[in-house]
Design brief:
Layout (H helix, E strand, L loop, with lengths): L5 E7 L4 H16 L6 E7 L15 E5 L8 E2 L6 H9 L4
Parallel strand pairs: 1-2
Antiparallel strand pairs: 1-3, 3-4
Length: 94
C-alpha cells in the first residue's frame, strides 16, 4: 500500500471460473503496463489471504487504490477486457 503508487488489485479464488477466464487478460495487462513506475497491477488469492477493511462479496473483485488515497478504494466497474481496463485506468491514474 505504498502511498506513492496507484494499485489495481484483483481479489480472486483459484476455483472461480470467472477468475480463470480473467487471468490471461489481467496478466497481459500487467505486462503491458509494467513500465509505468507509479502503477502496480496485483492479484491476491482471497481464499488464502484476508485484508482488514476489504469487503469481498464475489469473485473476482477488482479494486483501484489511488496514490495518496488508499483509504478510498474505487471498485472496478469497467469491461473485463484488456481494452476495458486500459480505458478505465486512463481516467484514474494519478
Amino acid at each position: 500500500m505504498d502511498p506513492t503508487k496507484d494499485v489495481l488489485i484483483e481479489f480472486y479464488a483459484p476455483w472461480c471460473g470467472h477468475c480463470k477466464k480473467l487471468a490471461p487478460i489481467y496478466d497481459e495487462l500487467g505486462a503491458q503496463l509494467a513500465s509505468i513506475q507509479n502503477l502496480v497491477i496485483a492479484k491476491m488469492d482471497s481464499t488464502a489471504n484476508e485484508v482488514d477493511g476489504v469487503d469481498i462479496s464475489g469473485f473476482p473483485t477488482i479494486k483501484f487504490y489511488p496514490a495518496n488515497k488508499k483509504q478510498s478504494p474505487i471498485n472496478y466497474d469497467g469491461d473485463r477486457t484488456k481494452e476495458g481496463f486500459l480505458k478505465w485506468l486512463k481516467t484514474r491514474l494519478t
